[in-house]
Amino acid sequence: MARIYAGRVGSKSGHRPDYFFLALVFVLTVFGLVMLASASSDLGKIKFNDSYYYIKHQIYYGLVFGVAGFCAAYFFGYQRLKSIALPALLVSIVLLALVFTSFGLEVRSANRWLTLGPISFQPSELMKLTFIVYLAAWFSNPKAKRASSLNEGVLPFGILTGFIAILLLLQPATSTVVILLAAGFAIYFLSGAKWRHMGAMTLLAIVGIGLVILATPYRLKRITGFLNPNDDALGQNYQLNQAQIAIGSGGLLGVGYGQSATKVSYLPTPTDDSIFAVIGEELGFLGAGGLVALFALFTFRVFWLAKNARDQFGKFLLVGLGTVIALQSFVNMASISGLIPLTGVPLPFVSYGGTALAVFLTMSGIVANVSKYS
């Protein structure tokens, strides 16, 4: 009992965050800004006549809002998130649907952006946060039916997850669907789901995503391009080939910060999906490997904190958020390295994108909040 209420009576364990985790967040964020400044300098000069265009936008719209979100999530008692979990999820669903209206903005043949007045953002990034918070609140509620119940657990979870997945697939955002499904299934499994239910839903998800890939030529081309990297080297496989050239040319120590040659006119989206290739070229195997190690430490620390969380809600929050960040970082780095088919997800804390950075920092604030009571 004393441990549970430690934070309320002034115990040190209830007020000290996990400083190692905070250090990891700080290092990843600073590293991301430093590398984005390099990866975006030439592109900013060419497109906007401003070498600092992208890094300034990342700071103004990503870092500023992200730090605000981190502080709010850190000081706002995480138990209170339960009361806003459902409204926040409903708002996210509405925003996801609005991208298909006149408020939506099409970028690179994808409807992922929403423009409301002077503000443009990606609702799919917000969904990663609100979906996890809602599932954690739902399955940790002692008054709720067990997750093993067909009518009160399996079917509602399947319908909600399937509906959100359809909205994301229509954008299209297949990789985001896979990441959310993995995080959602992790929470659902920990809440007491039966193996046969998990197996059935996993099989259904695999079949569903497989059919979507087969039905859309551009998705299918990514799979065939991965299996045959030497085919269509100037078309479908151009980005992957250029990324591998960049990583390979970096060698052990890299060509030097700011000295990438491929980011200028060869590597598509050097600020977004392909930024890991720029890191590999400029900082070499040691730099890229160091970043992989940072994400590994980040992941293990979040899951360790989840294991030691004082309640189920905190545990489910950290498992879900940790899965999202870990899987997204792996998918980005593995795909640009040619280990899995190419995707379009940003590298957490590093890739250009104000919405993504703000959301990941807010997620980190929640983790730090829960860590105060671990």
Notes on the structure:
Its main location: membrane. It is an enzyme of class 2 (transferase). Its EC number is 2.4.99.28. With 374 residues, the protein is mainly α. The protein has one domain (17-371). Helix content is 68%, strand content 4%. The protein contains 14 helices and 3 strands. It has helices spanning 6-9, 19-48, 53-75, 81-98, 123-140, 150-169, 174-190, 195-215, 217-227, 238-250, 262-265, 275-307, 312-336, 354-371, and strands at residues 104-107, 110-116, 119-121. Strands 1-2-3 form a 3-stranded antiparallel beta sheet, covered by helices on one side. Helix 2 (19-48) runs antiparallel to helix 12, helix 6 runs antiparallel to helix 7 and helix 12 packs antiparallel against helix 13 (312-336). The protein is globular, with a radius of gyration of 21 Å. The relative contact order is 0.16.
Give a concise summary.
The protein is mainly alpha-helical and 374 residues long. It has 14 helices and three strands.
Write the layout of secondary structure elements.
Layout: H1 6-9, H2 19-48, H3 53-75, H4 81-98, E1 104-107, E2 110-116, E3 119-121, H5 123-140, H6 150-169, H7 174-190, H8 195-215, H9 217-227, H10 238-250, H11 262-265, H12 275-307, H13 312-336, H14 354-371
Antiparallel strand pairs: 1-2, 2-3
Helix pairs in contact: 2-3, 2-12, 3-14, 4-5, 5-7, 5-13, 5-14, 6-7, 7-8, 7-13, 8-9, 10-12, 12-13, 13-14
InterPro entries: Cell_cycle_FtsW-rel_CS, FtsW/RodA
Family: Belongs to the SEDS family. FtsW subfamily.
GO cellular component, one term: plasma membrane
